[in-house]
Amino acid sequence: MYLTTEGETYLVVKLDNPILQGQTRYDSMVFSLDKKDIEVSAKDKRLKDYYTGTQDEVVVEIFEKMLGVEARQAMFFVKCNNKVNNGVLFFMESGLQFLTKNMYVEKRNIVLVEFQRLNVPAIQARTFDMSVHADKVYTFSSISKDVFPSIEDYFGKDGIKMVSEVMEEYSEPSNEESEDDSNLSDIIADTDEDD
Q1: What pLDDT is attached to residue 122?
Q2: Residue 192 maps to a domain
Q3: 195 C-beta neighbours (distance < 10 Å), count
Q4: Cα–Cα distance between 31 and 12 in angstroms, integer?
Q5: Residue 195 domain-assigned (yes or no)
Q6: 96, 99, 114, 162: which has the fewest Cβ within 10 Å?
Q7: Dihedral angle, C-alpha 88, 89, 90, 96, nearest 10 °
Q8: Gene3D superfamilies given for it (predicted)?
Q9: Are residues 31 and 110 both part of a single domain?
Q10: Could you report the per-residue pLDDT of 87-143, keeping only the tens digit for each?
Q11: How many CA atoms lie within 13 A of 180 on its CB side?
Q12: DSSP-assigned beta bridge partners for residue 87
């Protein structure tokens, strides 16, 4: 996958055989690429003899030629958080890719998407949270409300069920006395008269 934001570019390579380090399995490798110009000479017969261009373009082209596949790109992305990790959530045709902490959720495994804090007025909250229910629950927070229509379309076109947490609106106390308040006033008045 070739994933770009306004200032960052990533190449994510999925591995057929995950790398094990202790108890942790890594099923992909993530490369952070720059926009600086580079020159590369190659001796492999599948490649050109010489490449020149920006690092991200050259590296992706070499990987595509070596692996024989075209890099997939994101449809769109949003900045958000996953637990304590700030990052970017990429919406791919096949699923969701979160970086900087590498996490991938296949779209076919998603059974429900739940939105929280969505119907809070913009003055109170300009962001919302999203929980994606798949093999486990993945929660992404601080997503700008501006991108909600794109997210809704993304899940809706595949018929993935979406629900929104309903927040009851806070109402100001009314100026009218309740029946209990007026009874309390009568009791206090009766007590004053007896004294």
Answers
A1: 62
A2: no
A3: 4
A4: 6
A5: no
A6: 162
A7: 150
A8: 2.30.29.150, Pleckstrin-homology domain (PH domain)/Phosphotyrosine-binding domain (PTB)
A9: no
A10: 999 999 999 999 988 899 999 999 999 999 877 766 677 899 999 999 999 999 999
A11: 0
A12: 80
Number of domains, the chain = 2
Rounded-to-integer distance, Cα 142 and Cα 117, Å:
10
> What does pTM read for this prediction?
0.76
Tokens of 131: 């929980």
Residue 187 lies in a domain: no
Q: Are residues 11 and 63 in the same domain?
A: yes
**81 and 25 co-located in one domain:** no
Supply the CATH number for residue 122's domain: 2.30.29.30
Work out whether strand 112-116 and strand 161-164 pair parallel, antiparallel, or are unpaired. Answer: parallel
- Look at residues 97, 105, 101, 95 and name the one whose alpha carbon lies nearest to residue 83: 101
Q: Which of 40, 72, 104 is the last residue of a domain?
A: 72
Residue span of the structural domain in which 29 resides: 1-72
Give 56-94 pLDDT, tens digit per residue: 999 999 999 988 889 888 999 999 999 989 999 999 999
Give the span between the Cα atoms of 76 and 74, in whole angstroms. Answer: 5
